Amino acid sequence: MKVLSELDLDPLESSQKSNSIVKSNIELSLLLRVSVVEVRQCLTLFREMEKEYKAHVILLAYHGQGHINPMIQFSKRLAAKGIKITITSTLSNTISMIKSASTSIKFESIYNDHTEGGVAGPGGFKGFLDRFQSTGSINLRKLIKKYQVSEEMPVKCLVYDANIPWASNVATEMGILRAAFFTQSCAFVASCYPMNCELSGVAPSIPLLLMPGLPELRIPNLPSLGPEMGHFPPIIRFILSQFDNSEKADWVLFNSFNKLEEEVINWMSRLWPLRTIGPTLPSIYLDNRVKDDNDYSFNIHTPNTGDCMKWLDSKAMGSVVYVSFGSAASLSAEQTAEVAKALVHSDKSFLWVVKPSEESELPTNFTQENSEQGLVVKWCPQLAVLAHNAVGCFVSHCGWNSTMEAISLGVPVVAMPQFLDQMTNAHFVEHIWQMGVEPKTDDKGFARSDEISSCIREIMHGQRGVEIKKNAVRWRAFAKEAIDEGGSSDKCIDEIVARLLVLGH
């Protein structure tokens, strides 16, 4: 059953309308396309569960699937330990999360991107960020205050995506704890520290961490983030804004675990009150201790689950190459053609996720001409695919969520990073964790088909692949150990809960 609350599905305040919470069950049922009876049942169940909560946390989620899902998964862990959870974001994100939620989490919107403009609105992405800060900060204060003055349990902590640094100031003003939530690896954020010191004009507070061999960052062209100013491109300045106020946070949270990035974590713990709380995968794929936690709660596309799983069921163990470049990265037509050629020449069955926006980049008639060897889909249930015993390797852009999923499910990786933190993640996959290989790129930055197919064959059948597979299995065990009862990440979550419980009494 979907557990819903009396949600504020409109923003808490707009320029034209007064602040009002949607209390009509009929309005709510029409918006979510569920029956009025279902809504009333869910509200009743939610109120019954409220009596058992011990403290209250609001989580402020950032835009995008790769940011939203880790935060929701962390909130499920807190809820399972007796913490009342309210997740807030834009209206469109809120509606999407409600429709797929299956826990006792409450959702409220603090910004109506339908009327005030989302990413595609005036000013592009930068315009959206400015509006979200201006309106969202006001409404976030009102949301926290609403609980502080009502009979419901007052908020004790605000967990905010580190890409929303202004939220820290709101928490300070409201007199509650604050936790910055990073959705990149510790290694990537540590590699950005020297740049942040240069940009802010402040000397490093601790000796810099040396990470020899890290590749240069590949910077995407994102003009919607604003004009070029000074030494750092807009996207780098935006990433570095995550450092704002982090030193003031009560906790700095990372979707990682101690054994995975031990040296980096030890170094960063001298800088911030760092706590690892990952992997943030649904519990069924790890320790299975969180009830009904079977999947992520947010998808940008509807996964083609039935066709994918039926097709995989027909394949031999370890025989399939799974290919996906995530929700944000997109390949050029030239790189797409090289991947297509590599898959065909690998002589391996392949499952390739090609988003609707990328279909035009495929070679003409590729899907039809290679239907016996491979299945091309618009979106798939990635966790279920990676967990399937037919999958032998994962050709990935190495976004942090995909990387953590491969680690947690023990799947070797052919690393094809496209930009930013993906470069760092791919380096660690090959050289530090030794559970994958990265095809060499040419002067144009493209991995050619012979390189890609060679890496696939090396993992699937090569001598190096034997060791890579052993390491992948080893990291899978470490991931499960970290989040299971008494593991390093579980202890960090318990520590947070313990402090919240003290404040709750």
TrEMBL record:
**Catalyses which reaction(s):** an anthocyanidin 3-O-beta-D-glucoside + UDP-alpha-D-glucose = an anthocyanidin 3,5-di-O-beta-D-glucoside + UDP + 2 H(+)
Keyword Signal on entry: yes
| Alphabetized GO MF terms | quercetin 3-O-glucosyltransferase activity; quercetin 7-O-glucosyltransferase activity; UDP-D-glucose:delphinidin 3-O-glucosyl-5-O-caffeoylglucoside -O-beta-D-glucosyltransferase activity
Q: Name the pathway.
A: Pigment biosynthesis; anthocyanin biosynthesis
Entry's family note:
Belongs to the UDP-glycosyltransferase family.
Is-annotated flag, keyword Ion transport? no
Say which domain of life the source belongs to: Eukaryota
E.C. number: 2.4.1.-
Q: Which PANTHER family match?
A: GLUCOSYL/GLUCURONOSYL TRANSFERASES (PTHR11926), GLYCOSYLTRANSFERASE (PTHR11926:SF1375)
PROSITE patterns, sorted = UDPGT
* The entry's keywords: Glycosyltransferase, Signal, Transferase
Q: Name one Pfam family in it.
A: UDPGT
Q: What's this protein's function? A: Catalyzes the glucosylation at the O-5 position of anthocyanidin 3-glucosides to form anthocyanidin 3,5-di-O-glucosides using UDP-glucose as sugar donor. Anthocyanidin 3,5-di-O-glucosides are molecules that are responsible for pigmentation. Also acts on anthocyanidin 3-O-(6-O-malonylglucoside). Much less active with hydroxycinnamoylglucose derivatives. No activity in the absence of the 3-O-glucoside group.
Full protein name: Glycosyltransferase
